[in-house]
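Could someone model flavin-adenine dinucleotide with this protein?
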Amino acid sequence: MKNWNPIWKNHGIRILPGPSSLWIDAKGNRFHAPNFPGFDTLSTLEAIQKTGYDYSWFILTEKIIEKEFALSGSEQNPDLTNKSIKQVLKRILPGPPAPVQAFKERGEDFVVANNVKELVEGMNKLVGNNLLDFINIKEQIIARDRELDNPFTKDAQINAIFCARKYIGDKLIRVSKPHKLLDPSCGPLIAVRLNILTRKTLGGLQTDLNGAVLNHAGEPIPGLFAAGEVAGFGGGGVHGYRSLEGTFLGGCLFTGLRVGRYLAK
Ligand SMILES: Cc1cc2nc3c(=O)[nH]c(=O)nc-3n(C[C@H](O)[C@H](O)[C@H](O)COP(=O)(O)OP(=O)(O)OC[C@H]3O[C@@H](n4cnc5c(N)ncnc54)[C@H](O)[C@@H]3O)c2cc1C
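Reply:
Sure, complex below.
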């Protein structure tokens, strides 16, 4: 999402979403498994690209945003940044954390409405086109909601929500209690336009095991060393090409240590 309070030009903030939002493409069609929030970023990115549009939408409720909209970045998580256990524990309480609430009120990618018709009108207005059809979106929401009444549902996302809540940590602060998006007691409906954001690379410089950068012929370039993300030791290195969230820093530190030791020797 575009940061309403940017630190630099075009500053985007990544959502680390819980599993419950309905994810639809720019034309209003729900993505298929495994392209659900927090599941498989590269696969969903491919699906988004195939639509020919560089944005997509989450549709959710107040209840979902309360628990499931973790924002990435130190300034978005003052409780963690300030190492305040008391503040972190407040995540269990109802209501969205203050930085999320600020986005909801001021972020340009947010639409809040009391019914699907108004929501879809707001979404079309935000983008400046009429790609989204109210009836189509409402039918998909009803179909999704209906699966909550079906104990044998084959809706993979609904099953995943129940599954995620088997872990106590997620149940308490990360995954909202399964509910129908059209349940008025779960608060107004919210739509969030999701833009594609680049914030990490899979490297670019090939090195040997001591961190010496190799030329096209695979020979070390004298005096040139690389470690960390630029050398492919964020994602794309030891942790594999799917670049699992949260696994970058370890590889970066490890190669920094390794190259530093080699140079010292
Ligand atoms: C918002 C965000 C959240 C993240 N969250 C996580 C997480 O939760 N867990 C995790 O494991 N990883 C996370 N990562 C990834 C991880 O932080 C990075 O992969 C890692 O910090 C990269 O470290 P590095 O030292 O290789 O590169 P960097 O930290 O990018 O360091 C490169 C340095 O080179 C400097 N530089 C660039 N050009 C020049 C130049 N010409 N001359 C001199 N200096 C230059 C830059 O200013 C920078 O200081 C996150 C990344 C981002 C952006």
